[in-house]
Amino acid sequence: MSMQILLVALGVVAGPLIGGLIGGLDRIITARFQSRVGPPILQPFYDVNKLLAKEYTVVNAWQAFCAYSYLAASMISVALFFLQSDMLVIYFVQAVGAIFLVVGALSSTSPYSQVGAHRELLQMLAYEPLLVLVIIGIYIETGSFKISAVYSWDKPLLLKLPFLFVVLGYALTIKLRKSPFDLSTSHHAHQELVKGVTTDYSGPFLGLIEIAHWYDVVLFLCFCSLFWATDIAGMIILISITYFLEILIDNVSARMTWRWMLGNVWAIGLTLSLVNLIWLYQR
Amino acid sequence: MFKKLIKNSRMKSPWLLHFDCGSCNGCDIEVLACLTPVYDVERFGIINVGNPMHADLFLVTGTVNSRNSMVLRNLYDQMPNPKVVVAIGSCGLSGGIFREAYNVVGGVDKIIPVDVYVPGCPAKPEAIIDGVVAGLQKYAHVAN
Predict the structure, then answer these.
(1) Looking at beta carbons, which residues of chain B come within 8 Å of A50?
(2) Count of Cβ atoms closer than 10 Å to residue A189 Cβ
(3) How many domains would you assign to chain B?
């Protein structure tokens, strides 16, 4: 029991620390791609500190409630992952969090916030089914939805589920808000309708949403690490390569339309998933 | 210690909002030049945000006239405290060569309080960065 409490504490504390550091590294590497120097690695922490210390402004009570709920849901999903719990439960909890972000944006009357919220919903529509298919693939291979079963599996899942890993890469790109899928809100002001889904969140609430986003990033990278769960070095190498490819794709591609995203992600994602699942089933 | 942490974070993470208040685009081009690889202000954590509700620094270029003074006021009011206003270029400071025009109200400080004035026609990117840094000193020392 005390071991479990320790794991939850580790997840809740280490989650945002790792997520923030990854964010800082991401910004430095992106800057280097563009032949700039880039901000210090701790920049995301400075940003969030500053936001949390700003004036408390909120459009309505719903928005504040939604920001807290999004953070809570993301926190719980990471804690559940560290407890090696059921993947489907983790998936549903993170989906609830994502929905709260959208509801908070919809509770404002600003048209920019509304457009951003609708785009966020479309993004969820694109990646959530793929995530379920990835989880089903892991279930067919290991015979359990539990993460502990994946860790006790003796062969890396990547060898059996290579296409599903690519599909998870699509979901990761959408969730990290990387081009070409940064439709709901982008890191770059010049291509954004004000600020998309986060337009009306300001000050401390934007800080909370940023922290929740760090948890989400950590959760999705943890999902990626499941594909090489046999040893820690393999896990770290796999995550590093995946994240580097994400940054590369972000830098070489432009933002696309939501129609293109839905068509492309579903066509390629569902096809790859089905091929991989049929292959697993036939064996 | 907590206050020091916040002050440090504020110094290192100013997000700026840039508003062209009827400028000839000379100063605007110089402001955007600060974000290019040559000057790379993201080194100092500066991000150009398009949303007043996320911004800490308000960079205003150009003369204020009776039509856009309302927009300027509105943008300023939407920014959460603490905030700093930097007026850029001769027009932003006083109305510049347009100050005698029938529809021109004058400099930015006629409508909103200005903390830092950056002269020049157009202001050089180096001068703008200097102005932002001077604004930051003020911004970090605001009592919360």
Answers:
(1) 6, 9-10, 12-13, 56
(2) 19
(3) 1
